[in-house]
Amino acid sequence: MGFLDTLLGKGKLPKPKPDKLFAMSTAYITLSSNLGLSSLGAGICFKPLEASRFQNAELEINQLLQQSCKETNTLFKMSKDSYGYLWVILNDPDFEDLVSTIYMVSETLADHNFGEQLLCAVFKFKGEKDVFWIYNFKQGKYYPFVPIGKQRDSSYEFRLRSIMEKELPIEKETERWYPLWDIPI
Amino acid sequence: MKKWYSDYGLQARMLLTMFLLAVLYLVFLAVILTFGGSWTYILIVFMMLMLFAQFFFSDKLVLWSTGGRVVTEQEEPRLHETVSRLCAIADLPKPQIAIVDSNVPNAFATGRSQGSAVVAVTTSLKQKLSQPELEAVLAHELSHVKNRDMLVITIASFLSTVAALLVRNMLFFGTGNRDDRKGASSAIIIFVVSIVVWIISFLLIRALSRYREFAADRGSAIITGQPSHLASALMTISGAMERVPSRDLREVEGMNAFFIIPAISGDSIMSLLSTHPSVEARIRALTEMERRMEF
After folding, report:
1. What are the angstrom distances between the C-alpha of B90 and each of A5, A57, A119, B20?
2. Could you tell me the residue range of the domain that residue B26 belongs to?
3. Is residue B141 annotated as a catalytic residue, yes or no?
4. Are strands A130-136 and A118-126 parallel, antiparallel or unpaired?
5. SS3 content of chain B, % helix, strand, coil (to 5)
6. CA A87/CA A49 separation, integer angstroms
7. Alpha carbons A43 and A132: distance in angstroms, whole number
8. What ipTM is given for this predicted complex?
């Protein structure tokens, strides 16, 4: 936020940076070969706005998903979590389709001027533990999240970081590695 | 397309208030530099140090004086996750979260910078508000952090505090060198100017503080996307305020500038002197935002 924005108390939300999302499609090769992780689906999470324009955007996302998911054989569902955030949950054996569908949802929201409402995209993997890679749209960065019950397996998260550092744009400030409990994927 | 969330009127009023304050302070400084002696400079430097210390330790001071306790993620998982999601959307570093044991439903934010901020809620706020309402209140406090209101108000009130101190000093200890006629007349000029600056700047700072509240309400609506949630939270809080026993009201009165709704109920003070706009005015602004979101 600039000096004038601060002076006038104009709380603008930053625009999303969806470009680095695609880093995950190439990183998936390393994730599966080096760590034995396999995809369990993905999701994108955003904050609904109470306006009829937003419902139109939601409707359009739904229609687009129905079309594109028929072509790529992706399964999708939309749900709301207990914090009032909306999730689009996708499931597809083809990982590339998964990433591009997530991107499509974020772009559709941005086209309707709701890009600021994007919270994150989440990719879920199965290995020796359940692993989530969370993409923060405001930073354009990924970070790992490994929940065990109500605790985080931080040492495994740091291991994931050191292995994937070269291939994924990883959030450097670990204070921004916000947990997301009860991810509906 | 006019953006639903900008309010040029509010920004213009804020800018005008700050401009008037700046002019007032420049005049005040000019008078002090012309008529003041070395003791006025000492006083200014001393006040500067005091205010800087108060600002620098604001997080600890406020927590100490309200009895707030910083809570970990394990203690308050839901509160923490609500705040961290809002921070991720607003791209803010996550503040510390504190809980104040009180049956007055309220919340406040403090801290010298975005990185060292503390957001606190009272136990009663947590009980009385629903999740969306609580989220809206937290977003309001985060907007204060985002807009650096602590810094803005501290800077705005610096010379006002100096003027107040000068007036008090001269009332109690006289003007110093009374034998010297020139010294006596300069002291009287400083005294009168200080009183005028004190009164006007007090009103201007109160106005600025109210505008910052409106801006934070706006910020909350932008972050949550749901102005109506904050409106209903304000209604719940102000409704509950009128029912709490007065002993509690008096206890928390000193902290009013930080609270989301001041603990004195409406009619007792003139709105001109208030740090917060009336709940009705705030709800009106939020409803207007909601209406404009549709277009």
Report:
1. 14, 21, 9, 31
2. 1-295
3. yes
4. antiparallel
5. 70, 5, 25
6. 14
7. 11
8. 0.86
Q: Is the pLDDT of residue B242 over 70?
A: no
How many CB pairs (< 8 A) connect A and B? 111
- Using an 8 Å CB-CB cutoff, list chain A residues near B131: 82-84
Q: Give how many domains chain B has, as a whole number.
A: 1
**Residue A4 near chain B (CB below 8 Å):** no
Tokens of B267: 């009619």
Nearest-CB residue to B77 (from A47, A51, A181): A181
What whole-number distance in Å separates Cα of residue A93 and Cα of residue A181? 24
Amino acid making up residue B118 = V
Compute the radius of gyration of chain B from its Cα atoms.
21
Question: Could you tell me which chain B residue has the CA closest to the CA of A54?
Answer: B294
Q: Nearest CA to CA, how far is A50 from chain B (Å)?
A: 6
Q: Which of A8, A50, A139 sits opposite B228 (nearest CB)?
A: A50
Q: Which two tokens stand for residue B100?
A: 């104040």
Q: Is the pLDDT of residue A17 over 50?
A: yes
Has domain A14-176 been given CATH number 3.30.70? yes
User: Is A178 in contact with B87 (Cβ distance < 8 A)?
Assistant: yes
* The two structure tokens encoding residue B106: 């309220």
Residue A18 near residue A107 (C-beta atoms within 8 A): yes
Strand ranges for B8-144 from DSSP E:
68-70, 96-100, 107-110, 118-122
To the nearest 10 degrees (0 to 180), the angle between helices A23-35 and A154-164 is 110
What span, in angstroms and rounded, lies between the C-alpha atoms of B76 and B99?
Answer: 10
At residue B266, the pLDDT reads 40
A86-97: buried (b, 16+ CB within 10 Å) or exposed (e) per residue?
bbbbbbbeebeb
Q: Distance, in angstroms, between B17 CA and closest chain A CA?
A: 11
Summarised one tens digit per residue, pLDDT across range B257-295 is 556 665 444 444 445 567 778 888 899 999 888 888 876
Q: Domain residue spans in chain A?
A: 14-176
Contact A180, A120 (CB under 8 A): yes
State how far the Cα of B120 lies from the Cα of B141, in Å rounded to an integer: 9
